[in-house]
Amino acid sequence: MARPLAIFAVGLLTGLYLPVLAATGTQAISATCSQIASSISSASNVYYPGSTNYQDDIEHFSSSSTQQATCSVEPGTAQDVATILTILGSTNTTFAVKGGGHTANPTFSSTTGVQIAMIRFNNITYNADASTVDVGTGLIWDDVYEALAPYGVNVVGGRVSGIGVAGFTLGGGYSFLTNQYGLTIDTVNGFELVTPTGAILDVTESSHPDLMYALKGGYNNFGIVTRITLQTYSQGQVWGGLITYPGSSIPNVSSAIGNFTANVNDPKAAILASYNSILDQVIGSLTIFYDGPSPPAGIFDEFLAISSLTQNISSRTFLDLFSVNPSNMTAGNRGVFNSLMVLDYTEDLCNAILNQTQYWGGQFISQAAVLVSYDIEPFLPTLFSHGSTATSAWPPSRAQPYLPMNIYYAWESSINDQVFYSAAQESVATIKAAAVQMGQHVEGAFVYGNYAISGTPIADIFGDGLPELEAIRANVDPQNVMALTGGWRIPW
Ligand SMILES: Cc1cc2nc3c(=O)[nH]c(=O)nc-3n(C[C@H](O)[C@H](O)[C@H](O)COP(=O)(O)OP(=O)(O)OC[C@H]3O[C@@H](n4cnc5c(N)ncnc54)[C@H](O)[C@@H]3O)c2cc1C
Ligand SMILES: *[C@@H]1O[C@H](CO)[C@@H](O)[C@H](O)[C@H]1NC(C)=O
Ligand SMILES: *[C@@H]1O[C@H](CO)[C@@H](O)[C@H](O)[C@H]1NC(C)=O
Ligand SMILES: *[C@@H]1O[C@H](CO)[C@@H](O)[C@H](O)[C@H]1NC(C)=O
Ligand SMILES: *[C@@H]1O[C@H](CO)[C@@H](O)[C@H](O)[C@H]1NC(C)=O
Ligand SMILES: *[C@@H]1O[C@H](CO)[C@@H](O)[C@H](O)[C@H]1NC(C)=O
Ligand SMILES: *[C@@H]1O[C@H](CO)[C@@H](O)[C@H](O)[C@H]1NC(C)=O
Ligand SMILES: *[C@@H]1O[C@H](CO)[C@@H](O)[C@H](O)[C@H]1NC(C)=O
C-alpha cells in the first residue's frame, strides 16, 4: 500500500526543538504523579505503593515482568488517558501501559516510572445489527466470551484463561477459531486510539487507513488503545477438551500430530499441544477443539486412542472448553517466552521438540524450574488468507504459512533469570536448525512478537513493513512520547 513519505519529514520537523524537562529521578517522577492526580477527572485515580490498587496495577502473570512503579494510574476515560499521555510527554517521564499483564518480557508493560493500568476500560457492547462488539482494553478474553455467550456469538480470541484482550490483539492473536476466520487482527473493525499528542481518534479502515494498518500488529507504538471493535461470529456448542499424557505416550502423540497436520483440513478442527517437563518428569497436554457439538468421525481418534493420564472431553459450551486448561498454575513465577516459526509439524519435528523438553527439563533440576513447556501450534496452511499484508502490520508477509512454536519456562528465583533466558535462546536455535535440516526453509522466517524474547531485533517481527511503520509513527508521535515506554519499539 502506498503511503506518502512526506509525513516522515513533517514528523521530524514538528518534533524538533521542543523544550522538554527530564523526569528521571524518583522525585521528579513523584511530581509527575501529583501532576497527573490533580489533572484527571473523578473517573480516574492515582495510587501509591502500599495500596491494593497499586499492587493489582503493577502485577503481571510472570513476576519477572513486574516492576516497582513510582505510582500507578487507573484512567477511566479516554480524555483522561489523553491528559496522562500529554503530562508524561511534557515531563519526559518513563511509563508503561498494561492490559492483561501477560507479556513475559520485563518493561513491555511494567516500569519504575508511571504504571498505567487499563483495568477500568471494561465495557463490552454488542451490536447485533453490525455483528460487532466493542471491548475495552482492560478486559481479559474470559469476560468477552462470557458476555457474548447469551447472544450465541463469539470472537476470535485467546485459547487459555486470563489473557488480556489488548496486547493479544495488538500483536496478532492465534485462536481456536483462526483456521476459520484468521488471526484476531484480521477480525478487527476499528480501534479507539489516544494518540501521543492527546487526540482521541476513531480509527477505521476508511477514516485512518495508515493507523488501522499500523495497530494491527504494531503494539504500543502509536498511542494507547482504549477500545477495540471486533467482528462477531455465531457460536454454538463445541466439542473437545483436555487430554494429558505420560512421557511414554508422547512419541505416539508426535506421530498423531504428524498425521493430523497431514490429513485433516477441516477449519473447524484445532489442536494445541504442550510437551512439558515438571521436576524432570515429561508430561504431555493436548487441547482438542471442534467448532460443533461433535466432530466428523475419525479426525481425533488417534489422540483419543493413545494411553493417557486424564481425558476431559465432551460436547460443551465454548466457555467451558476454554476453562478446561489450568493455565494459571504457574502464575506468579518468573517466566520467559521464546519462539520460532516452522512450516510443518511433522512427527520428526515434534520428536525433536520432545528431545528439547527432556533435555532442558534435565538441565534445570538444580535451578528449581517450575515448568519447562514447548507448545506445538498447528494451523491450516490457509491461516493467513483471511487478511492481507496491505492491511496489517503483522505478519509482514503472508506468502508462507508459517506456524508458531513457543517455549515457556517458569522458575522461582531471580538468581536464575539469565540461565533460563539463555536456554530459551539456545533451544530455539536448536529446534530451528533441526527444522532446517529436515528441509523446512524457515531460516528467514519472521517471528511473532507476543511469543518473542526481549532483545529480538524489531526487523525480525515487522520485516519489510518497518519503513512504512516508522513513517506512520513519526507522523502520529512527533515528540517520540512512546519511546518513554518499553515494548517492540519502532524507531523513527
Ligand atoms: C498463559 C498464556 C497463554 C497465551 N496464549 C496465547 C494464545 O493462545 N494465542 C496468542 O496469540 N497469544 C497467547 N499468549 C501471548 C499473549 O498474546 C501475550 O502475552 C500478550 O502480550 C497478552 O496481552 P496482555 O494484554 O495480557 O499483555 P500486557 O503485558 O498487558 O501487554 C503486552 C504489550 O501490549 C501493550 N499494550 C497493552 N495494552 C495496551 C493498550 N491499551 N494500548 C497500547 N498498548 C497496549 C503493552 O504496553 C505491552 O507492550 C499467551 C500468553 C500466556 C502467558
Ligand atoms: C528524556 O528522558 C530520557 C531518559 O528516560 C533521556 O535519555 C532523554 O535525554 C530525555 N529527553 C529530554 C529532552 O530531556
Ligand atoms: C462504559 O459505558 C458507560 C455507559 O455507556 C459509559 O458511561 C462509560 O464512560 C464507559 N466507560 C469506559 C471506560 O469506556
Ligand atoms: C499415523 O499414521 C501412520 C500411517 O497410517 C500409522 O501407522 C500410525 O499408527 C499413526 N499414528 C498414530 C499415533 O496413530
Ligand atoms: C504407541 O503406538 C504403538 C504402535 O501403534 C502401540 O503399539 C503402542 O501401544 C502405543 N503406545 C501408547 C502408549 O499408546
Ligand atoms: C472437566 O473440565 C471442566 C471445566 O471445563 C470441569 O468443570 C470439570 O470438573 C472437569 N472434569 C473432570 C473430570 O476433571
Ligand atoms: C487460578 O485461577 C483460579 C480460578 O480463577 C483461581 O481460583 C486460582 O486462585 C488461580 N491460581 C493462581 C495461582 O493464580
Ligand atoms: C537432543 O538435544 C540435545 C541438546 O540440545 C542435543 O545435543 C541432541 O543432539 C538432541 N538429540 C536429538 C536426537 O535430536
TrEMBL record:
Gene3D superfamilies linked: 3.30.465.10, 3.40.462.20, Uridine Diphospho-n-acetylenolpyruvylglucosamine Reductase, domain 2
Pfam family, one: FAD_binding_4
Signal peptide interval: 1-22
The keyword Flavoprotein belongs to this UniProt entry's keyword annotation: yes
Listed InterPro entries: FAD-bd_PCMH, FAD-bd_PCMH-like_sf, FAD-bd_PCMH_sub1, FAD-bd_PCMH_sub2, FAD-linked_Oxidoreductase, Oxid_FAD_bind_N
Keywords carried by this UniProt record: FAD, Flavoprotein, Oxidoreductase, Signal
Superkingdom field: Eukaryota
Location of the FAD-binding PCMH-type domain: 65-235
SUPFAM superfamilies, A to Z: FAD-binding/transporter-associated domain-like
MF annotations from Gene Ontology: FAD binding; oxidoreductase activity
Transmembrane helix keyword on record: no
Family, per entry: Belongs to the oxygen-dependent FAD-linked oxidoreductase family.
Protein name, per record: FAD-binding domain-containing protein
Organism field: Neolentinus lepideus HHB14362 ss-1
